[in-house]
Design goal:
28% helix, single chain, three-stranded antiparallel beta sheet, 119 residues, 6 strands, alpha+beta
């Protein structure tokens, strides 16, 4: 599985740019990373326990903390800091962005929730 060679936080645009050693790179919105956090708070402890995270349109990353040689902890400005993003997790989030994002937007619509536009 490819591993990141660079993580660049674009604070103003609220994006995390990830460059992988296979040449693939992607800029991911902080909102996307927050609502797809690998934490138990978001994913639950088993199938069917996932939580639909809403209201994170303007969330940003405060800090990126290394976790060994295999992951990072993203600390968000809404206080969320329990997700550990392994290299495999980041690669999956990056390569499946469009599919994941469209699924998230469909879940919001089904729940009757509208995303607020970015200011």
């Amino acid at each position: 599985m490819p591993t990141p060679t660079d993580l660049i936080h674009h604070r103003v645009s609220r994006e995390l740019e990830i460059v992988f050693d296979d040449g693939f790179s992607r800029r991911l919105p902080c909102e996307y990373l927050r609502v797809f956090s690998p934490s138990a708070e978001v994913r639950g402890h088993g199938p069917g326990q996932e939580v639909l995270v809403i209201g994170k349109e303007n969330v940003n990353i405060e800090r990126i903390e290394p976790v060994g040689n295999y992951a990072v902890r993203l600390v968000f400005d809404d206080g969320h800091d329990s997700g550990i993003y392994s290299w495999d997790e980041l690669y999956a989030l990056a390569t499946q962005f469009e599919e994941n994002w469209q699924g998230y937007l469909a879940q919001l619509e089904e729940a009757g929730v509208e995303r607020a536009p970015k200011p």
